Amino acid sequence: MGDAIEKVSIIISKGSLEGVYPGLIMANGARAEGIEANLFFTFFGLDAIHAKRLSHIKVAAVGNPGMHMASLLGVLPGMSAIATHMMSRKMETFDIPGIPEFMEMIADTGCGMYACKASVELFGFTKDDFISQVQDIITVGEFYEKAAGGEIIFT
Q: Using the 8-state DSSP alphabet, how is residue 86 labeled?
């Protein structure tokens, strides 16, 4: 048996349901086990913390190998919305909260939430564009400082 994990830093770089939820679930699970957790949102993962976008995140129907046959149909108008609706209903049956509620819940457990400075600048955002749970906009170097001594997980 190895040493117990004491800290995780999770990078969320995709702005789709299947890109955001794994990181949120892992952070929530870490906090439930008493493990320190930080979330670092970069590139399109910023949508998960963007105040006007986090309620509108959809399943990526095109180019998503996990969608199997639906991926071929994903080019049709409305397929992403249909896939998102179906996935959201399925998640509700398992009591998985929506992204806004999940963000609040995880932040309340003490999980750190940070936006990538380079991505924020690239997309022309400011701290005011993000939900209140975002603690800071930090550089990759600052992220590594926060991650020191723990595991880094890229979702």
A: H
